[in-house]
């Protein structure tokens, strides 16, 4: 009989938690980076891409899963790419589970090391829930200092696909986006679907409808709350070959569809809190 509940495990030497429920759904969450590394819905089949060349040394970011980008997304500021949260050690705050759900909350707060990089008092909480055919992630950030700060953030979701050329991402028609592959020009998406036929690196602005990813007979619903932007990323052939922790053909098997607060930084006054959520639903 399959184990249900929450197990504390090690994944290639990294402390992690495995969430399992009675219908067969499961997820794995690394304490390093506060990062979901795996999610399999009840029907089976991994829905997140984890590079077989990913580092698991507790120092470098883990390529794949759902890295937490905070307090900076990409290169939109003076910090290292995607900020420091994805290479920080998170702590377990709460664990709850029943026959039909499993929930874990992880926490990260400022330290001497973070304040040397980003001089603010903060607390971040990542909640991960599996229930039925759904994966929910919620990132909450609080300002526990005495002055305002601002940040950008994202849940950098690597979706596993059989062949990225066969995927169709619906729901972005009519939205404007910043195209990083074309000198950050602002464009408007006029197509019915987004198809991946070349390197793709876009930030869609103020997206207010759910998305649907179709591939062969599989469909995945993607919804966000609190995060105003959607990032769509695939490195394609040349970029994939240049990424050391990604196989040369890795681009064929991943598509990043990320919930992000990128265009407009989130501003928090002393004592204020913010949250953003991304939900994946196997259809």
TrEMBL record:
InterPro entries: Aldose_1/G6P_1-epimerase (IPR008183), G6P_1-epimerase (IPR025532), Gal_mutarotase_sf_dom (IPR011013), GH-type_carb-bd (IPR014718). Transmembrane segments: none annotated. Its EC number is 5.1.3.15. GO terms for molecular function: carbohydrate binding; glucose-6-phosphate 1-epimerase activity. Substrate binds at residues 63, 81, 86. One of its GO terms (biological process) is carbohydrate metabolic process. This is Putative glucose-6-phosphate 1-epimerase.
């Amino acid at each position: 009989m399959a184990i249900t509940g929450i197990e504390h495990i090690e994944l290639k030497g990294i402390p992690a938690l495995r969430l399992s429920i009675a219908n067969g759904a499961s997820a794995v969450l690394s304490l390093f980076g506060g990062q979901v590394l795996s999610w399999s819905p009840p029907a089976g089949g991994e829905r997140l891409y984890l590079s077989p060349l990913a580092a698991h040394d507790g120092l470098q970011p883990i390529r794949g899963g759902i890295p937490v980008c905070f307090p900076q997304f990409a290169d939109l500021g003076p910090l290292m790419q995607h900020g420091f949260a994805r290479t920080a050690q998170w702590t377990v705050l709460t664990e709850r589970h029943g026959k039909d759900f499993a929930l874990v909350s992880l926490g990260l707060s400022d330290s001497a090391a973070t304040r040397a990089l980003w001089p603010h008092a903060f607390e971040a909480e990542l909640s991960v829930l599996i229930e039925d055919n759904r994966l929910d992630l919620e990132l909450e950030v609080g300002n526990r200092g005495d002055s305002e700060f601002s940040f950008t953030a994202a849940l950098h979701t690597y979706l596993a696909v059989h062949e990225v050329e066969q995927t169709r991402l619906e729901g972005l028609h009519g939205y404007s986006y910043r195209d990083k592959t074309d000198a950050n020009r602002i464009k408007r998406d006029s197509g019915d679907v987004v198809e991946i036929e070349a390197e793709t690196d876009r930030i869609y602005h103020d997206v207010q409808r759910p998305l649907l990813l179709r591939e062969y007979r599989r469909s995945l619903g993607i919804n966000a709350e609190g995060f105003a932007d959607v990032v769509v990323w695939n490195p394609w052939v040349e970029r994939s070959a240049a990424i050391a922790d990604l196989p040369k053909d890795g681009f064929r098997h991943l598509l990043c569809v990320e919930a992000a607060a990128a265009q407009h930084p989130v501003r928090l006054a002393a004592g204020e809190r913010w949250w953003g959520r991304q939900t994946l639903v196997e259809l």
